[in-house]
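Lab notebook page, bench 4
Experiment: in silico fold of construct C2
Operator: M.H.
Input chain length: 622 residues
Purpose: comparison with the prior construct
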Amino acid sequence: MSDPKHPDMIRWIWKSYMRAYRLPLIAAVFLMLLEGLALGGLSYMIKPMFDVAFSSGSTSSIIGVALGVAGIFVVRAFAAFGHRILMVHVGQRVAARLQSDMVAHMLTLDSSFFRENSPGTLMERVRGDAQAIANIWEVVLAAVARDVVSLLALLGVALSIDWLWVVVAVAAAPILTIPMGILQKRVRRTTTDSRASAAQISTRLDEIFHGINSIKLSGTERHEQGRVDREIDQFARTHLQSQANQGGIVAMVDIIAAIGFFGVLVYGGIQINAGVKTVGEFMSFFTAMALVFDPLRNLGKVSGAWQAALASLERIRRVFDERPSILSPAKPAALPGSATKAKIELRDVSFSYGDTPVLRGASFTAEAGKTTALVGASGAGKSTVFNLLTRLADAKSGKVLIGGADVTTLPLDQLRGLFSVVSQEALLFDETLRDNILMGRTDVGEKKLAHALEAAHVADFLPRMEHGLDTQAGPRGSNLSGGQRQRVAIARAVLRDAPVLLLDEATSALDAKSEKLVQEALDRLSKDRTTLVIAHRLATVRDADKIVVMDQGQVVDQGTHDELLARGGIYAQLYKLQFQDGSGRQSPQRASRSSQKGLKASATQTEPARWFLKRLFFRKQF
């Protein structure tokens, strides 16, 4: 039984993509009909060739038959060429639109969608499945128009000679209908498995190429090669099964042909010997039936190919059926009157990823135009705060406010327009430095761009670049050093000129010299902006207007650097441990020794403080 969803999907792909090209499709179908009729005409010309031209000995008869056969081949040639070009054009345009729409739709989906679907899977949807759908229409229309017409025309010629011969030729067909149905189901299942394996290979390769340096440094090349080999072997097996099942359908047609031709040759040969039928009639019938099995074979192929295409169509439709949960409200509130001077506030905010709680009633305020630092162990919820502010995720309970307005009541694009983000990874694209800084903006003049380059210290290293701003950054910015990538990201933020600046470990992975330059650029960028900073090293945040200490999704302390030191709480212990040698860059060994001494010296502190410090330093999470 066919899936009831299939007609809906077919209607959807027709209305959404194919109908716009109905004129070239109609022209292609017309040419396919001509090509199909040409086979019938060719088989029909065999009878006069043997019974008239050859038997009469007339040269004019021979020339007439020869011209008729040649004309049929010429018509068939032009018809085949024309519909091929038209269908390739339609197929590629449909594939391009489908791929573009899929990417556009994916870009609207929540971040959770991309956590649940690997890059390789999504790439296979956009490229592999979309191309499979586009290509199938040429096969389907050719089967419906050309091959069905060819089949009917050839059967018409055969029936006009002897209907009983036709019955003998196709007598074996009903026997193989059940095996062919089973093979069609297997084609669909194995094709689905094959696509999934292809997606897994893409994911694995993406991870390997992205983490090539880590693989080399850890000496795990053979391990990674083994993983890839297993994925490739799995794909090869599933693809072979899919192709074998499709080939089995075609083989069934050839088996039918073998039985049919055997019966016709025996039965027809007896009638010719008895003088009941002429050689011309037999040759015309034999030619028609021989040609019949060619469109039958094509129809067998399209049956398997269609099942494979349905598997791709189902996966594509599932992507389009995904809907974002984070949307602009139906009736959005106006942005705060002066967004640049609006304070940020979290009120008893809770959030979890699935069943894992991340924030547990967190509350704090970041004053407008000032710098607020978030410190705490990995997993304390600091980055989640950034995601909630920008609505990459929504709080389960509590409120996130900007200028007194709940972020969920604001227009999504305008809300995100309030923020500039500079993170530790400083994601760059495989484009020029200019493209990475402008990010598609066309309203930036050279003077404004030069100011951003100077403010971000990009101008310091730009003269050393062979092509200046037109230098390729490389995949994920691999042609640049860590400090250079950070400065390019800061230049991007300078041009964005958003009122709120979010800094996520922006200097943690840099050497001292690069850190100094990047920190200077960040200081310029954060001036007169509401700035939230995530940092593990206190050296980068002790001058903040407020420091918020977080642990396990809760705010456990907050205040200025001096206030926190004066209270002698957890922050004071952290400060003493990190800066007792006057440096915020201790080696891991010295940090470990220092933390142990600090813990012994703090015997009078509360037990929560002991646990917090152990978690931060002994597990190297701070």
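Observations: The mean pLDDT is 78. The first helix runs from residue 5 to 18.
Next step: discuss at group meeting.
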